[in-house]
Amino acid sequence: MREEVMTGLGEECGVFGAYDIDGEDVASYIYYGLFALQHRGQESCGISVTNTFGEKDDVRFHKDLGLVNEVFNKDIINSLSGNLGVGHVRYSTAGGWGRENSQPFVIHYIKGILSMAHNGNLTNTSELKNELATTGAIFQTKTDSEVIAYLIARERLHTLSIEDAVKSAAKKLKGAFSLVVGSPSKLIGARDPLGFRPLCIGRKDNTFFLSSESAALDTIGAEFIRDVEPGEIVTIADGEIISDRFSERIETARCIFEYIYFARTDSFIDGVSVYKSRVEAGGILAKKFPVEADLVVGVPESGLASAVGYSQESGIPYGMAFYKNSYVGRTFIKPKQNERTSGVQVKLNVIRDVVKGKRVIMVDDSIVRGTTIRNIVKMLKDAGALEVHVRVSSPPFKFPCYYGTDVPSRENLVAVNNSLEEIRESINADSLGFLEIDDLPKLCPGLSFCDACFTGNHKGGIPKETEDFTCC
């Protein structure tokens, strides 16, 4: 299920950048962009800005633990005067929680200033960190993002421009990274050669944007221009978008779980509608796992579109069985399992009149540990549902992810040591069906993708020291 209601799954951050060529302040744009990306991380957030018409070493920033509307207020936003800025919302893996890990990272060095926000996970962090440490680098955090920022700063000492430094650094990075980098006069975006994490470009009048998702551009009324391509660096300077490449790798591996769960339903990623992907998944489930029932419901939010697809394909009416409290943060973001468990009914409640006396098909995006979906099935039955048939719009999780998804260790994944029937019994469902691996290409037609969390095929490699692995 989408353990947004307690999933144990977390996505490793959202990034947003803005550059107003005319010199107007951009902090409010970044604030609303981050607000639209809040689903990608709720532990901390931050904004850094600089004035391209002012002192080149003048950067203003504010970051802290908490949600966007908790960390920032009107006075703080007004104090962040500058026409070029970088923003970040963060979700951490175990061991990476703390204010010091908040982003963007702001570095003052011999060439000036550098602000950077990162989404993803590197798989060669240890090697890079050791290399930098031997030349005198001192690290304040355990994140791979700080390593990237220091690497870019070091490369800048040997290159003619900041974009060349980003390009040189990017060639040394392995794994997943979508970067937004701010310098005194340029906004730069970079996406790893496999394209694990999304990044796109937008524009509103003379203000240019970089964003993890297109939905954030819609929020601020910006026009979507295009996606940053895997292996591409884009530099926004003097009112132009300049494209360069640091890798000519042809194979790509977009995270399939962006389409299944992470991205907002109203986003487009690499030309594919997230909404259509989820509706398609629901239709496939209806074809492969039909059952006699009275009602199809989805678990908010990412299960809703798949439930619509199941209803459309099966002809069984779609209904809204859950009330979601919009003022409660995504419970999967909370780092402790007991917090996730206690948060379920605070966040989600069953509408009894909808399900009472009904045979219900409940569609959700994934089952990780199985604890949350068990609770939701119980909630439906306690509310009077006669039967609860669970349909899952992803295959069973069987492997950890090293590219920016906080999939628990294998011993905590319910599908590793349990059969389909054993999982069904453990969650007390009347029947259970998962999307199959062979069906995944139908969710993003024409695109290659990473399905390592289901298959164990880690196209970007794995870190040598997984126990120390902390991202973003």
TrEMBL record:
Q: In which pathway does it act?
A: Purine metabolism; IMP biosynthesis via de novo pathway; N(1)-(5-phospho-D-ribosyl)glycinamide from 5-phospho-alpha-D-ribose 1-diphosphate: step 1/2
Q: What cofactor requirement does the entry state?
A: Mg(2+); [4Fe-4S] cluster
Write out the GO MF terms: 4 iron, 4 sulfur cluster binding; amidophosphoribosyltransferase activity; magnesium ion binding
Q: Which reaction does it catalyse?
A: 5-phospho-beta-D-ribosylamine + L-glutamate + diphosphate = 5-phospho-alpha-D-ribose 1-diphosphate + L-glutamine + H2O
Taxonomy, superkingdom: Bacteria
A Pfam family of this chain: Pribosyltran
Enzyme Commission numbers on file: 2.4.2.14
Amino acids binding [4Fe-4S] cluster: 255, 401, 450, 453
Principal EC category: transferase
Q: Which residues form the Glutamine amidotransferase type-2 domain?
A: 13-239
- Tell me the Gene Ontology biological-process terms attached to this UniProt entry: 'de novo' IMP biosynthetic process; purine nucleobase biosynthetic process
Could you tell me which InterPro entries the record lists for this protein?
A: GATase_2_dom, Ntn_hydrolases_N, PRTase-like, PRTase_dom, PurF, PurF_N
Q: What's its job?
A: Catalyzes the formation of phosphoribosylamine from phosphoribosylpyrophosphate (PRPP) and glutamine.
Q: Which family does it belong to?
A: In the C-terminal section; belongs to the purine/pyrimidine phosphoribosyltransferase family.
| Name of the protein | Amidophosphoribosyltransferase
* Organism from which the protein derives: Peptostreptococcus porci
